[in-house]
Specification:
Layout lengths: L8 H17 L5 H32 L11 H32 L2 E4 L6 H15 L23 E7 L8 E6 L8 E4 L6 E5 H7 L1 H5 L6 E11 L13 H12 L4 E7 L4 H10 L8 E4 L37 H7 L2 E5 L5 H12 L3 E8 L7 H11 L3 E6 L7 H14 L2 E3 L6 E2 L2 E9 L2 E9 L11 E8 L2 H15 L5 H5 L5 E3 L3 H17 L5 E6 L5 H13 L2 E6 L17 E5 L4 E2 L2 E5 L6 E5 L5 H5 L1 E7 L3 H15 L5 E3 L19 H10 L3
Parallel strand pairs: 1-5, 7-8, 10-11, 11-12, 13-24, 16-21, 18-19, 19-20
Antiparallel strand pairs: 2-3, 2-6, 4-5, 6-7, 9-16, 10-14, 14-15, 15-16, 17-24, 18-22, 20-25, 22-23, 23-24
């Protein structure tokens, strides 16, 4: 058991990703979904190395001043990370081999270049000549003075070329696998009921003689390698350079970021591996990760659905009962609050609210924050049409949303071309709040309505991310939303407007103080032997000051119940806690993304939905919003959904001090899978 007062953030995150791996290992999960979870695990790990491991390596460069909790150095944490990742990689390969066996039982085969019949060989050659050849250029790396920069989202075939009679010396070459331009999965012709798939890189392997015979070689081997680079974008303080230019420069520099991980097929020729490691300037401590034949497993999220006889059909979202068969979403929201739960409720209701505003002659303006948007976003389309209908539209577009910078720059152009006023956030702070303000004027009377959400305005992720969105015309909420937008329009001179918010809890000006106040009230009541409790649902809990306060609460006898999906740095097992902390993590078909807080508050419960996790960056360095829920029926609905989650005994893992990810034991009680039960709970209200 860990003796640490706080669990290290990065180790806790790896424990979360292991829960994703558990889903891939779960034989009760459909095969297609198990493969998808392997892809999610792989993508998560890529981002972890690009961001967190890169940060630790940067800290090493700063020297001894860079210490973590309990004086642990970044080097020590990196060593622990390396051990865990290598072990998880072994488990990944075990699961993948198990899945391959299960696929065979369903007569689905992933074949390689050595398993093709003559018909398939002819098909492959034609496909290579027609689709692939023009997309690849071999790099004879031994003759290149400056080693080429390897893209961290790409995979490469590291090739050894030789001749059987040894009449010419062996050579090394690199081939970039064009999996971004071409489908990585090619379904092969088959005479029987078998469904056979070959990977793009294996087609290239088969065709190596066609590529390299020109050089006089007749023997070839090729193994996958992949580099992961530091993804941090440095924003310099050159006041003469616009944020746009800085982001564009940062995106270019990201491609040249320092390598933080090198993964390779462990069957690669040792001499070739040594050569590559040397040319890339890597050391053994630079996270050299041996693996299997396949890498960049993120592509397997899109493993072809068509080869499966039994399709995985998600239950379709349904319209919120309060909005069902209504002629206008707006008219409903002007009369009462509506809380949407995605992906159970349809996201179309949000789009309908904006679409109605875009064509309503009485609507004067629309203001909205955007962090991550869908490709070909319906939100953006609605906003640009609103401008064409004469509305004043303001979009706060966060250009620094990690890995969405390029997409948001493109949306900036589209919005500005349409006449939208685009704001780019606040210096040194990301705008992470999800808010919308619509101004309507009828007979010289102004009305404000809109929404506050826990998730992004992204109609695609809204089908797989669990989030909550409050559609409201509440005067107090809208007054604070108005203050926030006024601040965002002139952040240098209007910080006082954030401080004046008295209904919404806003970061960075008031959230930490108000959270501590509410926890302190529960502590006070517990010490007075009065009922005291806190229920938290978050993505991450790592803020040390808030963790210390929760420690104090647990020692005082406050009942703490938590549903934390990802990072969780609070050890829950402590003999000094008067009431044991109940903390679980749920990893299932949907990504648990909503943040909900319920404080007992002496019997007058305070319930909030929030865009903010309990992390230093969210509390102190971002614009975030927590919104109170005032309507009793909605408060009760949120509480009942959280109770369903806290009773989950199918997909819930216990968050203990050892990060063991043990499933909650259903014992003799009814089996409860919370995402299924939540769907049924909300559907029954229709």
């Amino acid at each position: 058991m860990h003796k640490r007062k706080i669990i290290f953030r990065d180790i806790s995150w790896l424990s979360f990703n292991n829960r994703v791996l558990q889903e891939a290992a779960d034989e009760t999960v459909p095969l297609r979904e198990r493969i998808r979870f392997l892809g999610i695990f792989s993508n998560n790990l890529d981002e972890f190395f690009r961001v967190r491991v890169a940060t630790l390596k940067r800290m090493i460069e700063f020297g001894k001043k860079s210490k973590m909790h309990l004086e642990l150095t970044p080097d020590a944490i990196l060593e622990e990370i390396q051990e865990i990742v290598v072990e998880q990689q072994r488990e990944f390969e075990r699961i993948w081999n198990e899945i391959l066996r299960e696929l065979k039982k369903e007569r689905i085969f992933l074949v390689n270049e050595n398993q093709l019949n003559k018909t398939q060989q002819a098909f492959i050659l034609d496909y290579f000549n027609e689709e692939i050849r023009s997309n690849i250029i071999p790099l004879m790396i031994e003759s290149i003075h400056n080693f080429p920069v390897l893209n961290d989202k790409s995979i490469y075939l590291a090739c050894k070329l030789s001749k059987k009679d040894r009449s010419v010396p062996q050579k090394f070459a690199l081939l970039s696998v064009p999996s971004r331009r071409l489908n990585r999965f090619i379904i092969l012709p088959s005479k029987n009921a078998d469904r056979q798939i070959i990977l793009l890189e294996d087609i290239i392997r088969f065709c190596l003689p066609n590529i390299f015979s020109f050089f006089g070689y007749d023997t070839f081997s090729a193994h996958i390698i992949k580099v992961t680079r530091d993804a941090e974008i440095d924003i310099d303080n050159d006041v003469s350079t616009s944020l746009i230019q800085k982001i564009e420069k940062g995106l270019k520099n990201r491609k040249m970021g320092k390598p933080v991980r090198f993964v390779f097929d462990k069957a690669i020729d040792p001499a070739l591996l040594t050569y590559l490691v040397r040319r890339l300037g890597l050391l053994q401590k630079d996270n050299l990760i041996p693996g299997g034949r396949i890498h960049n497993f993120v592509d397997f999220i899109n493993f072809p659905e068509s080869v499966f006889h039994k399709k995985n059909l998600r239950k379709k979202p349904f319209v919120h009962p309060g909005l069902k068969n209504v002629t206008s979403v707006t008219n409903v929201v002007l009369k009462k609050d509506v809380l949407l739960h995605f992906p159970y409720h349809s996201f179309n209701s949000v789009i309908d609210l904006l679409r109605e505003a875009a064509i309503d002659p009485d609507v004067v303006s629309i203001k909205i924050t955007c962090y991550r948007l869908a490709d070909r976003s319906k939100i953006i389309n609605t906003l640009t049409n609103a401008v064409r209908n004469g509305k004043q539209v303001t979009v706060v577009l966060e250009l620094r949303a990690r890995f969405d910078e390029e997409a948001n720059l493109e949306y900036k152009e589209e919005l500005e071309d349409a006449g939208v006023k685009v704001l780019f956030g606040v210096h040194n702070m990301k705008v992470h709040a999800k808010i919308c303000l619509i101004k309507k004027r009828v007979n010289n009377k102004t009305t404000h309505y809109g929404f506050v959400s826990t998730g992004n305005l992204n109609e695609k992720t809204a089908t797989v991310y669990s989030d909550t969105c409050l559609l409201t015309s509440d005067r107090n909420i809208m007054a604070d939303v108005t203050r926030i937008f006024s601040y965002l329009e002139q952040p240098k001179t209007r910080i006082h407007l954030l401080q004046q918010c008295n209904t919404l809890i806003v970061s960075p000006t008031g959230m930490r103080r108000q959270l501590l106040q509410m926890i302190n009230k529960e502590i006070k009541n517990a010490l007075l032997k009065k009922p005291a409790s806190i229920i938290l649902k978050l993505n991450s809990l790592s803020d040390e000051l808030l963790i210390d306060k929760l420690y104090e609460a647990a020692k005082a006898g406050v009942e703490l119940k938590m549903v934390i999906r990802g990072i969780f740095c609070l050890p829950t097992e402590n003999k000094k806690f008067r009431i044991p902390i109940q903390a679980i993590s749920i990893v299932d078909e949907y990504l648990e993304h909503s943040r909900i807080m319920i404080f007992h508050n002496g019997g007058k419960e305070k319930t909030y939905i929030s865009s903010a996790d309990w992390m230093v960056r969210n509390i102190d360095h971002r614009i975030e919003v927590a919104c109170p829920i005032s309507e009793k029926n909605i408060q009760q609905e949120l509480k009942e959904i959280l109770q369903i989650q806290l009773k989950d005994n199918i997909k819930a893992r216990i968050l203990d001090n050892d990060l063991s990810n043990q499933y909650v034991n259903p014992r003799n009680t009814k089996k409860i899978r919370s995402q299924v039960e939540t769907y049924n709970y909300l559907y029954r209200k229709c």
